[in-house]
Amino acid sequence: MPGFREFRIRLRPAGSPGPAAPGGVPADRSDELTTELQPPLNWLDDTAADADRIRAEAAHEADQRRRAARRQAEEIVRAARARALDVRNETAARIRREATAEAERADAVSRRETEALRARARARTPALAARIVARVAADLGLPAERGGPE
Question: Measuring CA to CA, which residue among 58, 61, 62 is closest to residue 50?
Answer without folding.
Answer: 58
